[in-house]
Amino acid sequence: MPRTAHFEPSSGASGDMVVGALLDAGASLEAVRSAIASTGLDEVSVRAERVARGGLAATQFIVEVSHHDHDDHDHGGHGHHGHHHHRGLNEILAMIERSALSARGKGRAAAAFRLLAEAEGRVHGKPPESVHFHEVGAADSIADIVGAAAALEDLGIEAVSSAPPALGHDGFIECAHGRLPIPPPAVVEILKGRAVKPGLAGVEQTTPTGAALLASLAPSFGPMSELELEKAGSGAGGREDERAPNLLRVFVGRTAAGGGAAGEQVMEITATLDNLSGEVLGYLFERLPAEGALEVSLLPATLKKSRQGVHLVVLAPRERLDQVARAIFRETPTLGLRYRPVERIKLDRDFVTVATRWGQVRIKCGRLGGELVTASPEYEDCRAIAEAQGLPLREVQAEAMRMFGVEQRAK
Q: Which domains does the chain have, with CATH numbers?
């Protein structure tokens, strides 16, 4: 039963509201602060405060930026203060890559920023890599997105879902580009094809950063699935509104166990490739999961005139089809892709941590109707130990599985 976080953005969502809700649900502020610091983002400090919105207690995540020579638009009054240092997408992705986030955390943060940059690029008629302004590059947006990824990892969140966010309508906001209508154009671009709600008149309820986080984390927007509820949290926006509490709520729990494996519909995307180096193929394996791909595989193929090539097969949520396809077109010479909906059955998954003589290793467990049917040591944990201890990877993996077997027999 994977641990799931479900967001209820009935008053909208911003980056700091997402982090505040996760902190309120028990994520460690120190884990968030440490992850942000590890990016090299030295111009910010972060803190959390207990506040009330509409008489309800909540946590407000506050990012303070020390630079004083840039625009200070605060993403709709949701709680940021200070000024912005402009950065481009590639610089931000490099900061995420060198951070202390886990591989999954890095993928989540990078996917949110790519989605944000693509939307801003479409709004302003630029390629994503050329976007250099505060909606993407601001230090507080980096802190929000990296902080959200760190908080999700700290809580052990494997899946994210969200209800449709309230956008706000009928009004304008002031920012570096002048006056923008509510909802901002970037929010509209990010959420195209998604369920949304109009929300309150005259206020920006969902910001570009908030929209990018929800859209990149949740495959679709809809009602909460059945959960074994463990905890809940409320993240506060910066403004008070007598019409409704300015809160983003999150519910954390494990999806309820069924009698069998869980089924879902995903998109299968295929392409036949040739004239690609091993380095490019390796890069594809890293890039596509960051764009939302669930699985990536390559099969050898014999093409016309006996040329040797590969068949690329990718599984992705329907909502990520455009992003994954765009990445394949950009990174390969293919002129066309094939795609179709397919049904996927998957086991319930969770993690069990075991103590080896060299350190802790997570074991990924697959369960059918609550019964353990498969288990494997987490690669990144084993690799870190193998590199630190100068050991063969296989030896670390074998020891982890031996200790897992000992713990299972002891139960």
A: 3-255 (no CATH), 262-344 (3.30.70.1380), 348-410 (3.10.20.300)
